[in-house]
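Design request, tokens follow.
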């Protein structure tokens, strides 16, 4: 009888193991693919590689994370790739605001944020407009005045149609009557090379993208896209201080996943990134790169997507851009 009881109890324990494993939730069992829509060296790529490195150093993941660049289509290539990966718990992706704004004005866009799974929002980025150190434009007002005198002759290195740099140009041209060309380059190195080579005149950047060049004196900041002057640039005016009444459009960066992943996987990734944003390494990264903590969990971020989309519709209406969604 005693032997039977031991066998019976052992059977109960082994039968309960699958339930215990299920209750513990999801844990990655193979390398994680971390997608970014930007090319090597651009803001999203720099952040993705930094995050993958911190995940490893802080031992936040039991597996390796590798970065995959899925460029093109104003983010649509990366978004479509995630849709193809429906249900895949080992693929996640960085997003930026263009993933929300571009589908609002591009009828050919096949994917919106509602097709993806919200995980976390990470940060908000102010912006800087920079010129070569030997540029004749000492201020942004100098650039605008020249763009009024000689419409279409000046050039702006840009990222994507629909991005913050493109949107800000549309708003400023409508407000001031100035006119200048927008030359898109898929990779930050190309945008920077065009500016440093004298082929373009201005470039809107995230602070971490060109901080080294600014500190070295090869680039000069002429205006800030921020609510208040950033600590490293106390003598450079914000757009509002320079006399331009345009919305401050921050770059938002966060993480989404393919559609159809289980709730356990969402909770896991929320937890991992919640740990990451509490690390000293992350706090130092924000401070060093003049970035704003914008952490939100999945449900809160989903509400943010709707709010941001409505904000961008207002910006587009102001800029005379046709809205299709």
């Amino acid at each position: 009888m005693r032997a039977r009881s031991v066998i019976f109890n052992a059977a109960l324990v082994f039968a309960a193991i699958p339930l215990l494993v299920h209750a513990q939730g999801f844990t990655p069992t193979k390398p994680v693919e971390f997608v970014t829509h930007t090319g090597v060296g651009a803001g999203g790529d720099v952040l993705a590689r930094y995050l993958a490195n911190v995940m490893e150093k802080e031992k936040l993941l039991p597996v390796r994370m590798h970065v995959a660049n899925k460029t093109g289509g104003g983010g649509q290539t990366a978004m479509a790739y995630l849709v193809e990966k429906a249900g895949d718990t080992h693929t996640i992706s960085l997003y930026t605001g263009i993933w929300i704004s571009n589908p609002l004005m591009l009828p050919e866009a096949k994917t919106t944020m509602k097709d993806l799974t919200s995980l976390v929002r990470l940060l908000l980025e102010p912006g800087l407009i920079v010129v070569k150190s030997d540029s004749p434009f000492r201020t942004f007002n100098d650039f605008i005045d020249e763009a009024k005198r000689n419409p279409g002759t000046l050039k702006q290195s840009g990222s994507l149609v629909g991005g913050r740099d493109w949107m800000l140009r549309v708003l400023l041209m409508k407000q001031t009557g100035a006119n200048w060309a927008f030359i898109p380059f898929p990779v930050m190195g190309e945008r920077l090379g065009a500016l440093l080579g004298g082929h373009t005149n201005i470039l809107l950047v995230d602070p971490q993208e060109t901080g080294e060049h600014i500190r070295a004196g090869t680039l000069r900041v002429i205006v800030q896209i921020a609510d208040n002057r950033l600590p490293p640039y106390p003598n450079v005016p914000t757009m509002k201080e320079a006399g331009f009444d345009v919305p401050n459009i921050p770059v938002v960066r966060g993480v989404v996943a393919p559609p159809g992943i289980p709730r356990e996987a969402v909770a896991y990734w929320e937890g991992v990134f919640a740990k990451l944003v509490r690390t000293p390494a992350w706090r130092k990264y924000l401070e060093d790169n003049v970035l704003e903590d914008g952490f939100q969990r999945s449900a809160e971020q989903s509400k943010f997507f709707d709010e941001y989309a409505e904000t961008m519709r207002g910006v587009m209406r102001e800029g005379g851009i046709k809205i299709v969604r």
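Comment from the thread starter after seeing the answer: thanks! The longest strand covers residues 117-125.
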